[in-house]
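seq:
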Amino acid sequence: MPVKKHDQDFMKRQNRLTVFEIIKNQQPISRASIAKQTGMSPTTVSRIVGELTEQGYLLDSDQVSSGLGRKSTLIAMVDASVLSVGVELDRSLMIVGIVDLQGKLLCSSQYPRTPDESPDKTLERINEAIEQLTQQHVIDRTRIVGIGVGLPGIVNNEEGIVVFSVQLGWKNVPLAKRLKELTGFEIAVDNELKVRALAEHLKGAAVGSVRTALLGFGQGVGSAMILEGEIYRGVMNSAGEIGHTTVDPNGMMCECGKAGCLQTYINISSLLSEANRIRPIRTIEELFEAKDAGEHWAVHLIERALMYMAITINNVVCMYNPDSVILSGELVDKFPDIYEAVEKLYLSRFTWEPLRGSFSIHRSMLNENGVIIGSGLLSQNRFFALD
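struct:
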């Protein structure tokens, strides 16, 4: 029975993406080396390289292969040949940046947003921000292959629909469709921690890891898994939503409507809400200042949050048995001491004994840029897989 054209097209796209990724990660590299690594015929590799060179993505480098046998010219990427836009959306912040082929952030800007801002207004502002960035930094818009958006909540990544985001207050928003109508670009949408984990896997703390768990502690609490280079998604792309696991059915009310969710002991809004029962505290920085000043109630709140962070790490390690755990998010980015305290004071106390020493623990290397870099790379991956 002949292979269907659909299957042939799929294989061609996959081969193209495989060749492209090898060149991107191992450049400069010879055509023969690519053929050897992939098992593709030299003819197939040469055809793909030829297409990518013609389209302006690759060039022959000045170097030639060393060793025995016939010398061959090595090929390399043209880093600025493909650019993408990375967007991070959160309750009170929007960040937009331009990312090149190597995941390098060329430029970015932050914009405040109000928690009740409508989806349409936010998308209009993303479009305006892209216009501003491309003009200010003289970016060639024809090089931009798409926009990636990372945001908190459950996202249908295939359709580009925000199914439910407590932090944004959005439900069933067809974000990809609307943003494409506004900008004309192809849109990739995903959960913020999944794109952050992808960025750390490709360009940050998880390079070389086979099984990575990334935990995010900030306005919410969540996790993401990268298994052998692939994002682990689950049935609804909601794998890793640990912030809404119940730790105390008689506990505090969560903004999701349930009582005793894990995130109510760690996330910024819950910490500030509890702090304000003692005295007016407007920001998380003020809360940490009170803790550093030795105010007992503030010390208690922060230490309890650190304990629950360690419990979260243990639970994720027990469930997924990763080789690397990365701590990320606003709390860890703003207060590096949190990482030290969790690792040195709490982790040994709460990690299940057989798994102690089975994983390494890291801070995010990309910090506050992780989501926009990951979103931009997600958009590029989509482009090269579908092109």
